[in-house]
Amino acid sequence: MRVLIVSTTEQMGGAAVAASRLTAALNNHGVKARMLVRDKQTDSLTVVPLPKSWLHRWHFLWERFVIFCHLHFNRQHLFDVDLACSGTDITRLEDFRQADIIHLHWVNQGMLSLGGIRKILNSGKPVVWTMHDIWPATAICHLALDCQRYKTRCHHCRLLPSGGSDNDLAARVWRRKRNVLSNDNVYFVACSRWLEGEARQSALLANHKVTAIPNPIDQHVFRPIDRQTARRQLGLPTEGRLMLFVSQRVTNRYKGMDYLAQACRRMAQDHPQLASQTGVVILGSHADEVVDQLPLKAWPLGYVSDERRLAMVYSAADVFVLPSLSENLPNTIMEAMACGVPCVGFKVGGIPEEIDHTRNGYVAAYRDADDLARGLHWVLAEADHDELCRQAVAKVSRCYSQSAVAMKYVEVYNQAMALKHYKL
């Protein structure tokens, strides 16, 4: 079985990291998998870049320009939506022709157009599409939040000026997407049971198969490291407690830094002695820009791409906190748990699927900074911390190991191929 995994980038962003890890997991378990990307960041032999062309940059810029115009030249939601109005035709590539299965992942920002996706679906090859967010099931947005229109028809989009209209950009893209997905030669996979449930309610995917398979993680890389050793290696204090916050861009409002700051202030108010012995490690781009928001001492480490160093950072922490406002199945929580670090996050998306409340961490009420503070205090000062760490590693081994996830995808591939042969 030859699988072609298609992703905009190789490593930039959680979806790309998950696709790369799946490629490795499949190859480690007998499946010939290659990854086709626009932006290649490593020298991996299993990752193939698109043929060099100035058009790749043009596809990206043209789509942003179209969105910018529809936003009345306001940058606020410039990267919150995607139109798939321009992209590369991959059906002409030799890697595409040789593949038995085409496996789409996050293919936005000029990688594939809706027309290109239509050609892939019409090629006759079985197609699996892993949803890393809600975009395949909506018109233009990646985060639906409280909007429910995708369950019937996208229009009056909240992300467009003045709330859009009955025939706005979202409505027009919805119609084009509906026509593309009228071809039922695609098997959708959500990374969490929560996203599976959301996708099943989309009018776009009403006639499609949807299932849930989590992302895999390499436990040879993400594993517990002695906390004191990790701190010394990173130049962090060996005494006291450390909380860890990780995001590709920590200033992203959806990642919840404001709520973490509020929770820290509440903890400093209610438990001043604990707060005086606790600091916050911030990992991600623009980390130094949020230090002043926190009432506790903070160590901004910037962006780290090396996975072994990343595992060192996780292992240095006593607790990992991710107060995101919207999440699918965050890699960061999985990575922290694999390193034996209890996690605290809001009850949203797939987070409650990863964190078993009061067993390997704490699930706080959504958008409740006070409950977030209670969760942090519980992990740091009340719970059996060693037991939380053991349960975190056990959960990852049981649910997110390479072998467990690879076998689930092999089953989906076989079903997709059998369904295609049945239709023929």
* Straight-line distance between termini: 19 Å
- Total tally of structural domains: 2
Largest sheet geometry: 7 strands, parallel
> Average pLDDT value?
93
Morphology:
globular
Number of strands: 13
How do the SSEs run, as a string of H and E?
EHEEHHEHEHEHEHEHHEEHEHEHEHHH
CATH architecture of the largest domain: 3-Layer(aba) Sandwich
Tell me the quaternary state: single chain
Rg: 22 Å
Structural class: alpha/beta
Strand order of the largest sheet: 3-2-1-4-5-6-7
Strand content: 15-25%
CATH superfamily of the largest domain: Glycogen Phosphorylase B
Low-confidence stretches at least 5 residues in length (pLDDT < 50)?
none
| CATH class type of the largest domain | Alpha Beta
Number of helices: 15
What is the CATH topology assignment of the largest domain? Rossmann fold
Describe this structure in words.
With 424 residues, the protein is α/β, with parallel strands linked by helices. It has 2 domains: 2-216 and 402-423, Rossmann fold (3-Layer(aba) Sandwich), CATH 3.40.50; 227-399, 3-Layer(aba) Sandwich (Rossmann fold). The chain contains 15 helices and 13 strands. It has helices spanning 14-27, 55-70, 94-98, 114-122, 169-180, 193-200, 227-234, 257-270, 272-276, 307-316, 331-338, 351-354, 369-382, 385-399, 402-423, and strands spanning 2-9, 32-39, 47-49, 101-104, 127-131, 187-190, 209-212, 241-249, 278-285, 297-302, 319-322, 343-346, 361-364. Strands 3-2-1-4-5-6-7 form a 7-stranded parallel beta sheet. It has a 6-stranded parallel beta sheet with strand order 10-9-8-11-12-13, with helices on both faces. The model has no long low-confidence stretch (mean pLDDT 93).
